[in-house]
Amino acid sequence: MTSFVLNSRVVQTDQPPGTVLLDFIRLSSGLTGTKEACREGECGACTVLLGCPGSQGLVYRAVASCLLPLGDVQGCHVVTVEGLSEGPLTLVQEMILEHSASQCGFCTPGIVMSLTGFCLASTDFSFQEALDALDGNLCRCTGYVAIRDAARALCERLEGVESDRAVRVATLVELGVLPEGFLEAPSLVGQLQTPEAATTPEGGPPVLVAGGTDLFVQRPEQLREARLEFLSRRRDLDFIRLEDGVLRVGGAVTLESFRLSEVVGRVFPTLRDDLLLHSSTILRNRATLTGNLVNASPVGDVTIMLLALDATLEICTPEGQDRRVRLSEFYRGYKQFDLAPGELITEIRIPQPAPGTRFNFEKVSNREILDIAAVSTAMRLVLAPDGTIEDLRLSAGGVAPVPLFVTGLEPFRGRKPEGETVGLLARHVVEAVSPISDIRGSATYKKLLLGQLVRAHFSAEVLS
Amino acid sequence: MKNVDMQMHVRGTSQFVDDLAAPAGCLHAALVTSRVARGRIRSLDLAEVLAAPGVVAVYTHRDVPGLNEVGHVLRDQPLLAVDQVEYIGQPLALVVAESHQAAWQAAALGRADIEELPAVLDPREALAQGMIHGQKRILVSGDPDAAFQTCRHVVQGRLASGPQEHFYFETQRALAVPTEHDTIKVHASTQSPGAFHRHLAEVLGLPMHKVELDIRRLGGAFGGKESTAVWVVAPALAAFLLKRPVKLVLPRNHDIATSGKRHPYEYDYRIGLDEEGQILAYEVDLYQHAGACADISLAVLGRSFLHASGAYRIPNIRVRAVSCRTNIPPNNAFRGFGVPQGTFAIEAAVTHAAEVLGVPAAQLKRKNLAGDGDVLPFGMVLENTNSGRCWETLDARVDLAARHAAVAEYNRTHTDSKRGLAVVPVCFGISFAQTALNQAGALVNIFVDGSVEVSTGAVEMGQGVNTKIQLVAARTLGIAPDRVRVHTTNTSRVPNASPTSASTGADLNGMATKYACEDLLTRLRRFAGQHLGHDDPEQITIREGVVHLAGKPTELRWEKLVAAAQWARVDLSSHAFYATPNLHLDPKTERGRPFAYYSCGTSLTEVWLDCVRGTYRLESVEVVHDVGRSLSEVIDRGQVAGGVMQGIGWSTVEQLRYAPDGRVLTGANAYKIPDLKSLAPHFAVTLLENSQNPNAVCNSKAVGEPPLIHGLGAWFAILDALRSVRRDKDLPSLPLTPEKVFMYLHG
């Protein structure tokens, strides 16, 4: 049995926890405002708000309901476009209407939800954050000009509004961004009488689901009936802290909370923008760093970054023992890695870089946002006071059966990263790879591009 | 006035086919499709499909009660394959099950024993094998051979442009409900009420009066729901056979893999100019990659053919066009309908020529820009184009010379990055090139409470045609727009309707609505005159819902007038018909006047190119377009912006990839349409001021497709940046993906 609040109504259902929320909303609840257009998290038409209990009340995020297993909304508040439409138009709806940011209307409910999610989650109501919030919402009709105008107008209306998280819902209700019903949601959620974890069908080991944003693209039919265990329930794995020179990231941390974490911003200031390239807000709000690692795609953005950053994984065995493995030794072949059945990555440990360390991430994909890289590469570089290379780590994605950690860079130590040295380095990296031609690009392209991206690591912008 | 549907869109209450409450007992259909691109069917094995959970029935071509045929123009497309397959994704059998999921899971279990034949996937190869649709078309005007002899500069080349997936958000779908007396009602997502009505009746073996097709709105279409009737007819067939409601909703990746696309083309061009840069002669061969069935390809080809001269005055021209039959899903209409391809070739030729002459392309374009009085290759004289005025308006807004200078200076001082720009003039003929389609009907009913209901053949798909029609009706009747409601598009209210396409939806249906309203107005004025004791109806007008006599308001208000008229037995319902006058094209001589008028505009696109990584960003898009006296500026601006962005997508990142066997490899996770962050930081749309158009309703001009051509500016601006780096390579093909840009620079 899964219990949650859907808009202003308590719902109890015994549908399989692996049913995607979108199907429950449309088929079982008859709420057809939420649209299905891809079922892969690519378009944003099915975006809903998911409010999860947190220390400051319900914390709302926009998510793709087509990849969200029903069982994982246990104890949460799910808001669909109908939940915003019980009274007069909300401010977001008004702005879309005022700017004619809707044509056929199929993507519009998703855009309403993402912009409302922005209002709930934004730190400063900035226009840039509003644009980031819409990075997973495609529209085939408007050409986005009117949508951008609506987002800008919304931000202007929110300018100067107190952005304190503790009173955010109340503030937004007052501003007409949220209907009053939101104020009742915490008490409705509080009334939900169910165990913390949703019950699942018996038999077989459970499938671990973190964000589900890849699993539910790959094998939704299979997962529908499977026994699932949701890592989002593991509050003990949801932490980010800097301790003894190590950035410790819990195994259930989502990409978006990592990206926006204050401590991550301090230790790795460029990651906030780099991670925008990974996927869209509605996916990053669910997808986890560890999920990206065990997906084991040779081109996973997070994997490529963490390889260069020399991350170590802490793994809990079924017997409850902890073991550690360096990420650079984790992958063994295409989609093969050092994780036995029943083992769980509980923590990612990233050494805090020495002062003056350069980190750079390069990715080229067909479309810049929410697209898989043709080639990606990350670099961590420490320069000696004389400007020579003291320490250098490089990784490359999309060019080998595994996310590639480039070895054999020791000879470059003591040399200045310029001119011929950079050329030799690029050649060294390119010679270490064996890309294949596929829909992301030809093998020749990938090799040549990797060489260029390695050179870009040593551009004046990065080294300055 | 804004699109009236938006109030519902933002609340999620607007209904699309899959949002209609499913009738009790509704079943779900799916298709078993071919995994082989070309071959002879030895047998189908559907036992596993039939045995799968939830399956109710499986049908093949043998179960079709009427004609097993959905060919849109030629009779060459079976609904369900008979003894051969011609493309991967061709429907072999129809599965009906208790749920959508069960139907599609079962369909995947279908097996076909097919003797494979070598598939032809290249248009020139198809042509070499004699595999073409219809006939080759040739248009000659002037004496190109002689003219080329006199040219100072002759430039030639080879080009290609790729396919484009429509990516309408709402995939293909329909819900069919059997009704009494062996009739059937179909709710479908289609642009073609008349043609699909006919397809439905033919396949079911019913007279058309037993089939009712109802269309409320489409979640985008862009041409992709105009001609391929498979997904509307298939659920109707199942519903008819089972006597139960049946719905079919294509899953996204099935839609991408099996539906038609914008046609890829290949081109051979040759252009000749005199010393001053005047174009004297142009010759182009258009090879259309059409796919396995003719579908609507010949009409698309015809438009490319008629637009081969683009926006330019070309005195001597030879155009050869052929539709090549290849073993991929039949390609179909896509916003622009062949014009983008025809325009691409001439734009590339002119750009190439400018390079050889050593002048900016924009200079050649302006010099040769066609305008009023110029004669098109098929003999039509241009009038009321405003082409020059669009150019000058753009120039005044952006200062083209200064922009050119700024780009040149940037490129002189930068090596790791470059900038590029392109000016693209658009000259787009409005009307269906097939004269017969230029007709529309409208039914206007006034109810006794004064509310008005309009039905037309126009299909609302986000372009705002219903809002425009509502405005036309309100304006004509002299009442407020909120008294008027535009009803669904329904074949029982407006029969035999042409598709909503060719940008003509508002032109044709708006005019029919206007006629119907004028008819009603005449009756009401006559009645009002009698009612007020004046027998001269000329003295009666209705303004803002009030009857005026000799220009002065009376006590008689609209709702009273209507009620009194009905009581006095005045007919408050009118059907009217509009056929665009003076259209003709002689297929033998390829001469005539196929278009009512031209839609013109000019745009400037600027890009920034990262030479290290081979990536680029659009910096600025400035569009000036002539929409006549707009019925709704805000709707027209939206149409311009949306069209341009689709053109940009086609020119840049939208790329389909096929496996060697013809399978589509690029599903939703790899076929990328532009996103919000692809939008240029500066994107401005200017609607040309003081424009009149006597050839369309209320002096407006069509706006649906023409602006898409401006999107080509992205391709040409990137090319401009690339050519500033090196010119020792041939022109790349369209789209210019980051991969192609990179390989051009570094390959």
Brief description of this entry?
The complex is a heterodimer of chains A (464) and B (747). Chain A has helices spanning 21-28, 91-98, 108-121, 127-133, 145-158, 168-175, 185-191, 215-218, 220-224, 255-260, 262-267, 271-274, 281-284, 289-295, 301-308, 419-431, 443-457, 460-463; strands at residues 2-6, 9-13, 47-54, 57-64, 77-79, 207-209, 228-230, 240-243, 246-250, 312-316, 322-326, 331-333, 336-337, 344-351, 358-365, 373-383, 389-397, 404-406. Chain A is an alpha+beta fold and 464 residues long.
Q: What's the helix and strand layout?
A:
The complex is a heterodimer of chains A (464) and B (747).
Chain A: E1 2-6, E2 9-13, H1 21-28, E3 47-54, E4 57-64, E5 77-79, H2 91-98, H3 108-121, H4 127-133, H5 145-158, H6 168-175, H7 185-191, E6 207-209, H8 215-218, H9 220-224, E7 228-230, E8 240-243, E9 246-250, H10 255-260, H11 262-267, H12 271-274, H13 281-284, H14 289-295, H15 301-308, E10 312-316, E11 322-326, E12 331-333, E13 336-337, E14 344-351, E15 358-365, E16 373-383, E17 389-397, E18 404-406, H16 419-431, H17 443-457, H18 460-463
Helix pairs in contact in A: 2-5, 16-17
Chain B: H1 6-9, E1 27-33, E2 39-45, H2 47-51, E3 55-59, E4 84-85, E5 91-97, H3 100-107, E6 111-116, H4 123-128, E7 132-141, H5 144-150, E8 153-161, E9 173-179, E10 183-188, H6 193-204, E11 211-215, H7 230-242, E12 246-249, H8 252-258, E13 265-273, E14 279-291, H9 297-306, E15 316-325, H10 339-357, H11 361-368, H12 387-398, H13 400-413, E16 417-430, E17 439-446, E18 452-456, H14 465-477, E19 484-486, E20 489-490, H15 505-531, E21 540-543, E22 546-549, E23 552-557, H16 558-567, E24 573-579, E25 584-586, E26 591-593, E27 597-610, E28 615-625, H17 633-651, E29 682-687, H18 712-725, H19 738-746
Parallel strand pairs in B: 1-12, 10-11, 14-15, 18-19, 28-29
Antiparallel strand pairs in B: 1-5, 2-4, 2-6, 3-5, 7-15, 8-13, 9-10, 9-12, 11-20, 13-14, 16-27, 17-18, 17-24, 21-22, 22-23, 25-26, 27-28
Helix pairs in contact in B: 6-7, 9-10, 10-11, 12-13, 14-15, 17-18
